[in-house]
Write a structure and sequence with these properties.
With about 240 residues, the chain is mainly alpha-helical. About 65% of the residues lie in helices and about 5% in strands. It folds into two domains: about 5-75, Winged helix-like DNA-binding domain superfamily/Winged helix DNA-binding domain (Arc Repressor Mutant, subunit A, Orthogonal Bundle); about 80-235, Four Helix Bundle (Hemerythrin (Met), subunit A) (Up-down Bundle). The protein contains ten helices and three strands; from the N terminus they run αβααββααααααα. The chain has a three-stranded antiparallel sheet with strand order 1-3-2. α4 (about 80-105) packs across α8 (about 165-175). It is elongated.
Length: about 240
């Protein structure tokens, strides 16, 4: 098992925290692909730590829903569960539409500057086809709106339910699905926030967060091994 290490995390906190944050990052960004078997010994060797903290990390990742632990079989990166994805997306849409209405008219000059800089950076990312940077900027765009109306903890809570949504977004952006549309929607949302148009801001935000509903079928067709088997998803 190849374990790419996110170098920027080194030296922060305990060894256990470093292993956890690195594995979590690699799973969410598909450096560790869904279904990959994870060995305690290999992780221990890779990070030069004992197996005890690695075991604790695996339990933490299991609690996050990012790995599955099967007795006598081992630990595997969780497959993407479309029912979980839709549940997380549904909650995020409800919350974010409410937040966007509250944020209208409440942007400070600092918020406006940050969003303008973010959108400019998104345009550069689109031109350069840098999907990891686009992903980070996309998240920061939304996080800035939550912060503008004092909802930082709400943003953190919503993200805890959206691990499968995040991984599908990684797949989507890495294959250049509708980048221009995403950027255009962000611009429309920003202008509606500045002009005080709550209805447009809410409508476009809803459309923005529902894009994945259509794209998931194309992605599942191209990457069937990344998703929970269709029979297990019956009723979705």
């Amino acid at each position: 098992m190849d374990l790419p290490v996110k170098q920027s995390l080194k030296g922060r906190g305990s060894a256990r925290d470093f292993v956890y944050q690195t594995l979590r990052y690699n799973i969410l960004h598909l450096d560790l692909k869904p279904g990959t078997k994870m060995s305690e010994q290999e992780v221990s060797d890779e990070f030069q730590v004992s197996r005890t903290p690695v075991r604790e990390v695996f339990v933490h990742l299991f609690q996050d829903g990012l790995v599955e632990i099967y007795p006598q079989r081992g630990t595997y990166v969780s497959l993407i569960n479309l029912r979980h994805l839709e549940e997380g997306r549904f909650v995020r849409e409800l919350v974010e539409k409410a937040v966007i209405r509250e944020a209208v008219g409440r942007l400070s000059k600092h918020d406006v500057f940050n969003l303008e800089a973010n959108l400019a950076a998104q345009e550069i990312s689109c031109r350069n086809k840098n999907y990891l940077q686009m992903l980070a900027l996309d998240d920061e765009f939304h996080a800035t709106i939550f912060r503008a109306c004092g909802k930082e903890r709400t943003w953190d809570m919503v993200n805890q339910l959206n691990h499968d949504f995040f991984r599908v977004r990684v797949l989507r952006l890495s294959h250049d699905f509708k980048w221009d549309k995403i950027l255009k929607q962000h611009h429309v949302i920003f202008e509606a926030l500045k002009s005080g148009d709550q209805d447009v801001a809410e409508e476009v935000m809803g459309d923005h967060l529902r894009m994945v509903i259509v794209e998931k079928d194309e992605l599942r067709s191209e990457y069937p091994d990344y998703f929970v088997d269709y029979e297990m998803e019956r009723g979705y």
